[in-house]
Amino acid sequence: MTTIWAPSTDGMALALSRLRNGELVGFPTETVYGLGADASNERAVVRIFTMKGRPANHPVIVHLAPDADLERWARKVPPAARTLIEKFAPGPLTLILPKAASVPDIVTGGQNNVGLRFPSHPVAQRLLRDFDGGVAAPSANRFGHVSPTTAQHVADEFGDAELMILDGGPCPIGIESTIVDFTRGAAVLLRPGSITPQDLAEALGYAPLPGTRKSPRVSGSLDSHYAPKTQSRLVKPFELPAAIRSTILSGRSVGVLARIAAKPADFVGVWRQAGPEWALYARALYAELRLLDAAGVDLILVEEPPAAVDWQAINDRLHRATHSGKGEAGTAAGATRTRRG
Ligand code: TXA
Ligand code: MG
Q1: Are residues 172 and 60 in the same domain?
Q2: 176 alpha carbon to ligand 2 midpoint, in Å?
């Protein structure tokens, strides 16, 4: 059974003792909830992969307290990486750096590089400070599924497993950290997040290079990821009314995740509104996808946000969440996901 704990003295003490015993702890960060294990304990990290059902060659991010000793984890920290740390840490940024020799292979998926992040969430910071070590943690969801932004979401993912979850309330950002790779010379943006390419360019003095989408080592870069179980489709705002009509005419029930579209007067189905502005939208996105998934509709239609640069990270997640595994996602042809268990 999963158990949800307030981050009280008792809750924190239990979380610490679990981490020290090589057990897992669900914990809040400002982006999404993490499924944490002692990063220096190989057997503990293996448990993460087992619980998530994640392939073992996918590396996990090591979370550190703000004043942690970087050199314990990274062999080399280029000046540009230090610049980003000064500007954005603690915060929703992950740096990929050459790993220190002591970092276990299971953490890095056998690679020479390690992902490091300094979360700004007060509960995460307290846990990391008191633990006085690195906490390896992916998002606390089953592999390929929607990330969790509340403690209850984590419980919903792993209900039958033995897991304690620290409850830090809803995650204020709501989408995963921006990942920047510093192991290939110039900075490479591996995963867009709420720290945008412009933010990075301003700090670095040059625009980060775009990452290769298919990089096998970034599981969040798989075409289908962050996905609800219900078949889902991204539709342009002007196509939404017709898509709703044709779904209903075909005898299927429909859920809509709208951005600015108004609910038609004769709409029958589940209508959710995620917010017109990207930060609000990001905060609501995964909770809304989960709600629509749980509503038992046959098809989820997502009103496509603008192609503007502010929306890049959200569009990235939405394209993967609605990807069918074949063809291009989100085209007028209507890429759809097939159901999975
Ligand atoms: O906001 C976040 O980053 C959240 C919270 C919990 O910190 N974590 C998160 O972890 O999203 P995860 O495992 O779901 O996604 C991290 C991504 C994965 O795609 C992983 O492959 C990539 O980061 N990654 C981790 N270490 C890496 C490394 N050494 N080299 C390249 N990619 C790495
Ligand atoms: Mg994830």
Answers
A1: yes
A2: 8
CATH number at residue 279: 3.40.50.11030
Q: Is residue 99 part of a domain?
A: yes
Q: Ligand 2 centroid to 60 CA: how many Å?
A: 9
- Does the beta carbon of 94 sit less than 6 angstroms from any atom of ligand 1? yes
> Average pLDDT in the 318-331 region?
63
C-beta of 117 in contact with ligand 1 (< 6 A)? yes
124 pLDDT above the threshold of 90: yes
- pTM above 0.90? yes
Question: What is the per-residue pLDDT for 213?
Answer: 52
Q: What pLDDT, on the 0 to 100 scale, is given for residue 226?
A: 85
Q: What percentage of the chain reaches a pLDDT higher than 70?
A: 92
322 lines ligand 1 (CB under 6 A): no
Ligand number, closest to the Cα atom of 48: 1
- Write the single-letter amino acid at 32: V
Does 43 map to a domain?
yes
What is the number of domains present in the chain? 2
Whether residue 72 sits in one domain with residue 103 = yes
**Which residues are close to ligand 2, an ion, with C-beta < 5 A?**
139
Query: Do residues 43 and 104 lie in contact, with contact meaning Cβ atoms separated by under 8 Å?
Result: no
Ligand 1: residue whose CA is nearest its atom 17: 218
306 occurs within a structural domain: yes
pLDDT confidence band for 184 (50 / 70 / 90): very high
Q: Are residues 205 and 236 in the same domain?
A: no
Query: Based on the domain organization, do 50 and 193 belong to the same domain?
Result: yes
Judgement on whether residues 175 and 297 belong to the same structural domain of the protein: no
What are residue 25's DSSP bridge partners? 36, 164
Q: How far is the CA of 176 from the centre of ligand 1 (A)?
A: 8
Residue 163, strand partner residues: 2
pLDDT of residue 236: 97
**183 shares its domain with 263:** no
Nearest to 290 by CA among 224, 220, 233, 229: 229
Full residue range of the structural domain in which residue 287 is found = 232-339
226-239 confidence digits (pLDDT tens): 889 999 999 999 99
Phi, psi of 268, rounded to the nearest 5 degrees: -125, 120
Distance CA 80, CA 86 (A): 10
Per-state percent for the chain, helix, strand, coil, to nearest 5: 35, 20, 50
